[in-house]
TrEMBL record:
Region (Disordered): 1-24, 98-129
Transmembrane segments: 37-62
Name of this chain's protein: Uncharacterized protein
Keyword Ribosomal protein: no
Ranges of compositional bias, category Basic and acidic residues: 98-107
InterPro entries: Glycosyltransferase_61
């Protein structure tokens, strides 16, 4: 007998499907008592999940997965007129950052007195704070299978030489988490993934006993530095947020823009795509770590970034001492994209207005095969429906999604409960989102056309998970879905009910 043990019951929470009809509910929308709806954010669509239906009028920005190839991203890049944070060759605002050129590096600089070694030593003593380094390497998270990456925070005389992939740390005592060569090597990527990390540029913190043992400064900065990587899956909205943007927010938000960003594995299209967010976090042009010959000097900085769980931010004495939350990240996104309101519209204020629905369309794998029928059903229930596909113009797409109120997630077959809950269900609740899950049955997945019903794909989906990610990617991630309209309709009615609470 074919098993449906790994499909959620077809009967949704709340009233039975026959207790109320769609048209009647749609007609009564105008009479719903106005109530304020909470604001929230969903920043990403998990590689594991199918597609989303999101309903107006609420959360800040929702960023679903789009085609993960770089060629697609480059094809869809924003217009060339978009302001892009500069690389190391771009000019920094002189009123914000102080640049000091070494006379020995440029002997033709006029009107500069001769600089002696004694002068340099006195300057270092007068301006540099006490050398200090702390590294958070406790990547274990009980109850969550993904370890956090190491991150080091430094204070003192810090000299960054991108050409040497080295941060020189003037450290007379020699104390710190260094090996026998006085070095600490880190790949500054905010996901500790053994498959991805070899592709991340490795940066060395080198402890030196004196300023004379470090290269001379050619550019001096009055703000701290954060060195981080945009390698890995950063052509995917989910990973853009979980692996870079949220960790960068956690690490730098308290600095209120007074921080210099140095990016390894630099991707111009990625920087262009997220210019509004990078500009909100840093007042200075981004420096391309791979194309810079300067020696940048700082008094404080980080190598790597702090992170919590995917799309979840929790209080922590080291990683999040300021107790930021996903609501704070939501607010940050709203301000960065100039989204018009911090509070949602009141349902019922305009009796003629229909609740807006945005259906995020996928064109690769995990497609919604009967999208036209789903769209027609939603319109019959009283929604004004828009179908859109995410592209590289994040600002425009954020404006489209900003009206959403209830997030309905279609979860594919294959025992994906844990991922749905931990990657989206809990984050949605943390972000004060109204959230509805629809679990696909074995009758709704194209896997039924590839495997017999007595196969472990249906009898024991956890057997797929036990084989590891390659099996999940090959089987679960390549399915498409044709939603059963009778089964799906009650979940749409539940979404409408959410608008009344």
């Amino acid at each position: 007998m074919a098993s449906t043990a790994y499909s959620r019951p077809s009967k949704p929470p709340g009233p039975a499907a026959g207790d109320r009809s769609g048209p009647r509910l749609a007609k009564e929308l105008g009479r719903i008592e106005p109530k304020k709806l909470g604001i929230g954010l969903v920043a990403g669509c998990c590689f594991a999940l199918l597609t989303y239906l999101s309903f107006a009028r609420l959360f800040a920005i929702y960023s679903p997965v789009f085609d993960s190839s770089s060629s697609m991203v480059l094809k869809n890049m924003p217009p060339a007129t978009t302001t892009v944070p500069g690389t190391a060759t771009g000019a920094l605002p002189v009123e914000e950052q102080k640049e000091v050129r070494d006379p020995e590096a440029d002997p033709h600089m006029p009107n500069l007195p001769e600089v002696t070694e004694k002068d340099q030593q006195e300057e270092a003593t007068a301006t540099k704070p006490e050398a200090k380094i702390t590294c958070d390497e406790n990547g274990v998270d009980e109850g969550f299978p993904y370890a956090r990456p190491p991150v080091c925070e430094l204070a003192g005389d810090i000299r960054v030489s991108p050409k040497e992939k080295t941060m020189y740390f003037v450290n007379p005592s020699g104390a710190g988490p260094f090996d026998s060569n006085g070095e600490k090597k880190i790949r500054p990527f905010a996901r500790k993934d053994d498959f991805l990390l070899p592709g991340v540029v490795e940066v060395t913190i080198k402890s030196v006993s004196s300023a004379a043992a470090a290269p001379r400064c050619t550019r001096r900065h009055d703000v701290p530095v954060v060195v981080f990587s945009v390698a890995g899956y950063t052509d995917n909205f989910f990973h853009d947020n979980t692996d870079v943007l949220i960790p960068l927010f956690l690490t730098t938000a308290h600095l209120q823009g007074e921080v210099q960003l140095l990016v390894t594995n630099y991707k111009p299209w990625w920087v262009r795509k997220f210019t509004p967010l990078l500009r909100k976090l840093s007042n200075y042009d981004v420096i391309d770590f791979g194309k810079d010959d300067e020696v940048h000097c700082f008094r404080a900085g980080h190598l790597g970034m702090y992170r919590d769980r995917d799309l979840i931010i929790s209080p922590h004495p080291t990683r999040n001492p300021r107790n930021y939350s996903m609501v704070d990240y939501n607010r940050f996104l709203r301000r960065a994209f100039n989204l018009p309101r911090d509070a949602p519209a009141v349902l019922g204020e305009e009796t003629s207005a229909k609740p807006q629905m945005l259906i995020i369309e996928r064109k690769g794998t995990r497609k919604l095969l009967n999208l036209p029928e789903v769209s027609a059903l939603c319109e019959a229930l009283g929604f004004a429906v828009t179908v859109a596909e995410a592209d590289a113009d994040v600002r425009v797409f954020a404006e489209k999604v900003n009206a959403a109120d209830v997030l309905v997630q279609i979860v594919p077959w294959g025992k994906m409960d844990w991922m749905a809950t931990n990657f989206y269900g809990q984050p949605a609740r943390d972000m004060r989102l109204r959230y509805v899950e629809y679990y696909v049955s074995e009758e709704e997945t194209t896997l039924k056309d590839k495997y017999p019903r007595d196969h472990y794909v249906f009898k024991d989906p956890m057997h797929i998970h036990a084989q590891g990610w390659p099996a999940i990617a090959e089987i679960i991630m390549k399915q498409d879905v044709m939603v059963n309209m009778t089964r799906f309709k009650p979940f749409l009615l539940q979404a409408l009910n959410e608008l009344q609470d």
